[in-house]
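pipeline/complex-builder :: batch 7 item 3
reading input block
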Amino acid sequence: MSVEHAAALIRAGKLVAFPTETVYGLGANAFDSAAVERIFTAKGRPHTSPLIVHVDSIEMARALAACWPPAAETLARRYWPGPLTLVVPKRPEIPDIVTAGLPTVGLRMPAHPLALELIRAAGVPIAGPSANRFTELSPTTAGHVAESLADYVLDGGPARVGIESTVLSLVGSPVLLRPGVIPLPEIEALIGPVETAAAPAPGAHASPGMHPRHYRPATPLYLLDPGERPPEGNGAFLRIGQEMPLDPLEYAAVLYETLHRLDAQRLDWIAVERPPEAPEWAGVLDRLRRAAG
Ligand code: TXA
Ligand code: MG
């Protein structure tokens, strides 16, 4: 019932916040430039930042890609539906506004039954960034989505993965644009060596997801080395294996929920123990670095 309603809204050019396993997305018909334009306006997102296009199958992804390299097929078969976005050359049917004028598109098949039902019922791929205003924390529950952002919020419960997808470019030799919960060595075992994108200069366009001010809570957040003491005053200290889980996947699953909750408490600071520089922690560490600024 609610999925049918949401799908009708997508077909009518409206914006629907929808659940995925990573974070909630703010979706529009990927073929409808005017609807996609409204995503940028609602989020206050710069037009230089390309959107991910969500698909319900590998077939739909292939139909949107001008080139679907063997590595894309291998990774899609292994990880889709799941938290991996593949950047490949795009077909002209995808409007330029979706990809910020880039000749490439980020494609992902999300692992949430409501997201897949929504794409199927709408009958079109759904362009969608995370359903938060630009630079704010991504939503991991329907309640986190600001009411003014979407025409409708489809509630699919709390996000299971909890941080945004791994973004991997397969345009030329593979490049990791954004780490997520999939450890890089696991991907390399399937497709060979993957370069890691260097942090770009401010305003750079090549890997816009590396924008340093993404994912920031309103409360100042400090990343502390193990054993380092938190500041004086009224704050929250998040230690690994104490206030926060010891396991990196469990940690990722509760990270944004925890930051959303603490942010609402108007503390002076949030201090977070720095996770180890290990592949399983790369996604969490990346988001914490950005949150700390
Ligand atoms: O888990 C996720 O990826 C969530 C859910 C909703 O799918 N979406 C998400 O979207 O995090 P967003 O817009 O917040 O982040 C998309 C990332 C950005 O880092 C963007 O730069 C990158 O994907 N991206 C998208 N298309 C790209 C392209 N053609 N080339 C390079 N990077 C691209
Ligand atoms: Mg985002």
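note: The first strand starts at residue 16 and ends at 18.
queue -> next item
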